[in-house]
Amino acid sequence: MDSPNRDLDNGSTPDPRLPLELEREIFIYAILSDIQDPTNLFLVAKRVREWLFPIAFKIVIVCPRRFFPVPFLELSSYQQYGSYVQFLLLSDVNSVSDNFKPLMPIFNECLAQCPNITDLGLWCNDPPVTLESLINLSALSRLSMDAHHLHKLFQSLDPIPETEREATGIALFPRITQLNMLRTLWMPSPDCELFVGALGYHFPRITHFAHSHYLWNLENTGLLELVLRKFKKLKVFVLWKQAYNELAVDREFVLSVKDERIVTMLTIWEKDWEREVRGTGMGMWMLADRILEERRSKQVINLAEILPLS
């Protein structure tokens, strides 16, 4: 019978290597434990980089308040790692730091290096993105961006006559199912109706629509009724307010327009977005689905218990 210490018995050195699968699990656990600074782990070995790159660069947050070792402010970073990016958030980059200014004129080139993005958050006023860049993101299914900038992009398109909006045509964003519009859209009612009509036509598969909410703006322009009418497949309409107080617990507010698809909430959007894409908790969309599900089952829920603001 072989001795369990046969390597020692014959004077040879035991093999120090772990099974590859176990080694891989250890490194993945390590990077998930410290996702903000994985640089040292990349230096271990080529096989480790191959394991970790898809995890480390799956979610990219470009924000002055966040540290990330790879400078996603340069085109070369997107050329090297862009194929791994599935979730990209650009937050407050045009209002805080001069370090982010070089990214603005090349941002569309950077997006072109990220063909697998499914969720794009442009959490800044007038984001440096063109309509063509958004259209070319063929895997994109969720978009969050400034309502005024989206309206500006759509103004370059020819108006769609009401009689043709029901006809089969070439929609610009046939794969996007969730659209979140930042900043309240404020324009004269006829322009608002044209814009929402165009959104309904070019985003034909929208099931989840969200809009930042200021009561007097939304109800005066009739945006609520327009969205409910123009998005044919709409299941959830979230009206949200940004919560700046971490201790806020009342996450719903009263709205005069009644429709079972409408959900209102307070949200710290950037944190909610990251929580949802990392799978560490419920973000705005998951919470809205949960509220509707429990509302339909006539259960009373405490929103603060479902998603604490921390």
Describe this structure in words.
With about 300 residues, the protein is α/β, with parallel strands linked by helices. Helices cover about 35% and strands about 15% of the residues. It has an eight-stranded parallel sheet. α7 (about 130-135) links the parallel β3 and β4. The longest helix has 14 residues, at about 20-35. Residues about 245-255 and about 305-310 have low confidence and may be disordered.
Number of helical runs? 14
Low-confidence stretches: 246-253, 303-310
* Number of separate strands: 8
Structural class by SSE content? alpha/beta
Strand order of the largest sheet: 1-2-3-4-5-6-7-8
Computed CA radius of gyration, to the nearest angstrom: 24 Å
Biggest sheet, open or closed, and with what strands and sense?
8 strands, parallel
- Average pLDDT, to the nearest integer? 76
Q: Hey, roughly how much beta strand do the residues contain?
A: 5-15%
| Element-by-element helix/strand order | HHHHEHEHEHEHEHEHHEEHHH
What's the shape? globular
State the share of residues found in helices, binned by percent.
Answer: 25-40%
Secondary structure layout plus pairing:
Blueprint: H1 6-9, H2 20-33, H3 39-42, H4 46-56, E1 59-62, H5 75-81, E2 87-91, H6 107-111, E3 119-123, H7 131-135, E4 142-146, H8 147-154, E5 178-182, H9 189-202, E6 208-212, H10 215-221, H11 223-230, E7 236-242, E8 262-267, H12 269-278, H13 284-296, H14 303-306
Parallel strand pairs: 1-2, 2-3, 3-4, 4-5, 5-6, 6-7, 7-8
